[in-house]
Design goal:
The complex is a heterodimer of chains A (609) and B (90).
Chain A (H helix, E strand, L loop, with lengths): L6 E6 L4 E6 L2 H7 L2 H12 L12 E6 L13 E6 L6 E6 L3 H6 L5 E5 L6 E6 L2 E6 L8 H11 L5 E4 L2 H4 L7 E3 L3 E3 L4 H7 L2 E7 L9 H21 L11 H8 L20 H8 E5 L9 E6 L6 E4 L3 H8 L7 H14 L3 H16 L5 H4 L8 H12 L5 H4 L3 H7 L8 E2 L2 E2 L9 H9 L12 H4 L15 H18 L3 H7 L10 H11 L5 H22 L10 H5 L14 H12 L9 H7 L4
Parallel strand pairs in A: 1-6, 7-12
Antiparallel strand pairs in A: 1-2, 3-4, 3-6, 4-5, 7-8, 9-10, 9-12, 10-11, 13-14, 14-15, 16-17
Chain B lengths: L9 E8 L15 E7 L4 H7 L9 E5 L2 E2 L11 E6 L5
Parallel strand pairs in B: 1-5
Antiparallel strand pairs in B: 1-2, 3-4, 3-5
The chains are: A alpha+beta (609), B mainly beta (90).
Chain lengths: 609, 90
């Protein structure tokens, strides 16, 4: 095989045994890789009604065929499992360097099953695989864990691990890699913790074989030159990182403010990309093989908020900044560093605290339960509660369950701004209605990464769409969901792919992505078969959700989004007309009016219920 | 004697330039914004061109009062015009 190694490492933690399996070429091709392979195996092997934290759940680390190749940003892996936060699918993506090193071990995917009796870590050194005790690491932060493991394995190894939050089964715990990168959402860190896996350490020297190396080299060179031209023109994330976004979403009126009570934040000038650059930026940082370098190496010199690391990203700024009513970039950055050290999703932690703030200010959540006042804008409370959440200490034990369970416990779940119990990312859908349909239909709960139509609705890529109309959004959301599944499955980063590997008009044909896939794998995809494979992945994910017990009723949004008009800004007066968009979306997907894929659709995609 | 004072009609607008376009703002700007007096009838494209902002080929997103507009749109009294390079989000 080319592109794919065609090999899976299966780790049975209960029996402390590892085995290697081949992947048959048709499965490989039909499900593309990464996210696609993982759902195929998850669906075949795991009962979707399983408790996510039980040993019967399985945890997948999945690379794509383009991971570890010369493809720019060919360095993304996917963590897939049944999610503790939502009970739906978890598909959490991360970059850094770990994915490439993992691909070089000669395995495309790791499957973790069962549960170890005592904490362990996996050490994969090319084909030498060991399950080693991690008792001496249990309790350590992410950075402490990585530093210790580099000493006892290989100084050049790359590491994915959980912090105390994953160990404490916090439902918003992440899996961190390369110290500062996060497979963030849906509580994947808690699944890893439930299996008593502290870390996965990889070191590899196997090159990825390519079907057409010369053609691949030429196309990659062309793409890199276009990226570099954009960097020169200032049309790139390199200059400010994703931190340039708050001022944009604020201007459009969709920056989540005080738990989505508004889309305009009066303190936005304190949390802009300029502030981050001028005060805290050390350097721009690329993931392995990336010509963009959107990452931020940062450092804050401050008695209260001091620290160093990577980030914050836009989502973190929206959650801990405007979401919590905080216009202080140093405080936001500190909250970001803490989440990375302790291993938690910045979006869900920030937005869960924001929910608690609204409950508190409305007199629903008593101060005595929190242990301190909890008004919007209280940065010190945020810093304190982030740590308490990771250790399930005091009120942190409730925050650790996510905003839905928190708000429900106090009798007001409507203040949890979530879909399928996962907290919204940084775009208020009343002012970006395509995002509303996306949040409601995504297979992992509210997520921008499931099909980020904000590219077009907000950022003008490939073209600027009107965010306040619902016209044509169902068709576009379906397409964006499919192409994001494709990018995830291929092992690439969306920042590069959407703009440079698809035709830059609203048809968004995957011309160059198809070429890259074929140069890597030699599999002879056409654009049609590749898009169909992506649709296959998406539909299999949907089948998993349906078997897990989800119905049309959960394809919805909080009452605030459906019934409370946006109070101010350019989107004033708007709500999300989900009841109009959803039936059209189901029809375009080939699903019945209950959101169930029809027999005809499954036959077309060649998958079985 | 006929003294004709022909007042040149002006409109007052606020200009915001984000991300890499911010460097094109005049030194008197506060943060990402500056207030300007411009001739009535000025189009968004013309104003932005004065500040070195490209408006062709979808290179920029242009918003007036938070809503996207075509570059030909004429600016009116009190408008807030914002522009930033069209690129990935976050």
């Amino acid at each position: 095989m080319f592109g794919w190694h065609g090999k899976i490492l299966r780790v049975n933690l209960t029996d402390q045994e590892v085995s290697v399996e081949d992947v048959d070429p048709q499965t490989a091709q039909y499900f593309i890789g990464g996210r696609g392979w993982a759902i195929k195996y998850l669906y075949d092997e795991v009962d979707p009604t399983v408790d996510p934290l039980a040993p019967e759940n399985k945890l997948f680390f999945a690379n794509g065929p383009l991971t570890g190749t010369p493809a720019p940003t060919g360095n993304r892996y996917m963590v897939v499992t049944k999610a503790p936060l939502t009970g739906a699918l978890a598909c959490s993506n991360s970059g850094g360097v770990f994915p490439t090193e993992m691909k070089r071990t000669g395995f495309d995917m790791f499957i973790f099953e069962g549960r170890a009796e005592e904490p362990v870590y996996l050490w994969v050194n090319d084909d030498q695989v060991k399950i080693r005790s991690a008792e001496h690491l249990w309790g350590k932060t992410v950075h402490e864990t990585e530093d210790a493991l580099l000493e006892e394995t290989d100084a050049k190894a790359k590491i994915a691990c959980i912090g105390p939050a994953g160990e404490n089964l916090v439902k918003v715990a992440s899996i961190m890699n390369d110290k500062h990168r996060a497979a963030g959402r849906s509580g994947v860190g808690a699944v890893m913790g439930s299996k008593n896996i502290k870390a996965v350490v990889v070191r590899g020297t196997q090159k990825v074989p390519l079907a057409e190396p010369e053609q691949m080299k030429d196309l990659c060179k062309l793409v890199r030159s276009q990226v570099n031209a954009d960097v020169k023109k200032g049309a790139s994330l390199r200059e400010y990182g994703t931190a340039y976004v708050p001022i944009v979403t604020n201007e459009v009126g969709i920056l989540p403010t005080r738990n989505f009570q508004s889309g305009v934040f009066e303190g936005v000038e304190g949390i802009t990309g300029e502030v981050l650059t001028e005060k805290y930026l050390v350097r721009a940082k690329p993931c392995y093989g990336c010509p963009i370098a959107c990452g931020r190496d940062t450092r804050v010199d401050d008695p209260v908020y001091g620290g160093e690391g990577e980030g914050p990203e836009y989502e973190t700024i929206a959650a801990f900044g405007s979401g919590c009513g905080i216009g202080n970039m140093a405080a936001v950055t500190k909250a970001n560093y803490l989440c990375n050290e302790l291993g938690m999703d910045t979006i869900s932690v920030g937005m869960t605290i924001a929910c608690a703030m609204e409950l508190y200010e409305k007199g629903i959540l008593p101060e005595s339960d929190v242990g301190r006042p909890l008004n919007f804008g209280d940065a010190d409370a945020v810093i304190d509660l982030v740590t308490k959440t990771a250790y399930r200490e005091g009120f942190g034990d409730l925050l650790a369950e996510g905003s839905y369970r928190l708000a429900e416990k106090y009798g007001h779940p409507e203040f949890s701004i979530t879909a399928k119990k996962q907290e919204f990312p940084g775009y208020d859908p009343r002012g970006a209605k395509g995002m509303g349909l996306l949040y409601a239909t995504s297979n992992i709960g509210a997520s921008h990464m499931a099909g980020d139509i904000a590219y077009a609705e907000v950022f003008g890529v490939p073209e600027k769409l009107d965010p306040l109309t619902i016209k044509d959004k169902p068709r576009l959301i379906k397409y964006f969901e499919d192409i994001f599944a494709l990018i995830d499955a291929a092992g690439l980063c969306v920042f590069l792919s959407v703009r440079y590997l698809f035709e830059q008009n609203m048809d968004l044909r995957p011309t160059r992505l198809t070429k890259l896939m074929n140069y890597a794998t030699g599999a002879g995809y056409t654009e049609e078969t590749l898009l169909q494979a992506a649709e296959r992945v998406y539909n299999l994910e949907r089948l998993f959700l349906l078997k897990a017990g989800f119905t049309r009723a959960e394809d919805t949004l909080p009452r605030r989004m459906l019934e409370e008009p946006m109070p101010d800004g350019p989107a004033k007066g708007h709500v999300v007309e989900l009841d109009v968009m959803l039936p059209e979306f189901y029809q375009l997907r080939g699903w019945d009016k209950n959101g169930v894929p029809t027999d005809a659709k499954l036959k077309e995609l060649q998958i079985a219920r | 004697m006929d003294r004709s004072c022909t007042a040149v009609s002006v409109v007052n607008i606020r200009l915001k330039l984000f991300a890499s376009y911010r460097q094109h703002l005049p030194p008197s700007s506060q943060g990402s914004a500056c207030d300007l007096e411009i001739p009535a009838g000025t189009r968004a494209a013309d104003l932005l061109a004065r500040f070195g902002v490209p408006t062709g080929d979808g290179a920029s997103v242009i918003l007036i009062n938070g809503r996207s507009v075509e570059p030909e749109r004429v600016l009116e009294e009190g408008d807030v015009i914002a522009a930033f390079p069209a690129m990935a989000g976050g």
